[in-house]
Design brief:
The chain has 197 residues and is mainly α. Helices cover 30% and strands 6% of the residues. The protein is extended.
């Protein structure tokens, strides 16, 4: 993974400054956002996506610096020649777990400004002009993320929390009596007729 320093930029007027964490090649290899490292299709951490879709991506991208750079350069060369990288992302159908966990609405809290470190120490003199949030930070295991672990999809506390949530979700079990053929369809309005179904 090539750490990539792109100057800070803002997604909106009151949003926090963001920076690009990985290069475009590395983000394409894993199909993740360059900033937040979440999957582009489902908005989930890499570990959750790979576990739910049964994709083993840990061996696909080398972890050592020299091998990783060679791999990225080779991928770029092949992309310029028109040869696509053989990736399993997007080829596997989303299963029930992915569909339950994926984020379908924007998560606006992601764009909030960072917490003011001077405020935490009780020394912020800017007051209302301070571009950072004046509130105490939330600590816990979710605040201790490692960006490389998140990219490679290992030891990610957010992913583990989501996977535990998926394990606790109820799932539909087909009835034991195979003669039952009834199917309930809900959430339809009066424009949908029986023949449409």
């Amino acid at each position: 993974m090539a750490l990539y320093e792109c100057g800070p930029w803002r997604p909106g007027r009151d949003a926090r400054f963001k920076k690009t964490e990985v290069c475009q090649t590395c983000s394409k290899l894993k199909n993740v956002c360059q900033v937040c490292l979440l999957d582009l299709e489902y908005g989930l951490p890499v570990q959750v996506r790979d576990t739910a879709l049964a994709i083993n991506s840990n061996d696909a991208i080398p972890k050592s610096d020299v091998n990783r750079e060679y791999f990225a350069e080779e991928h770029d060369r092949r992309a310029r020649a028109g040869i696509d990288y053989e990736s399993s992302y997007g080829k596997v159908r989303a299963n029930d777990t992915i569909l339950k966990l994926q984020r379908t609405t924007p998560y606006y809290k992601r764009n909030r400004a960072h917490v003011c470190s001077f405020y935490v120490r009780g020394e912020c003199t800017r007051g209302a002009e301070c571009p950072y949030r004046h509130e105490m930070p939330i600590t816990g295991e979710l605040s201790q993320q490692n960006i490389k672990d998140r990219y490679y999809g290992v030891n990610d506390p957010v992913a583990l929390k989501l996977l535990n949530k998926a394990g606790e979700m109820p799932s539909l079990v087909p009835p034991e009596d195979e003669s039952i053929k009834t199917l309930y369809v809900g959430g339809l309005n009066e424009r949908i007729r029986e023949q449409d179904l």
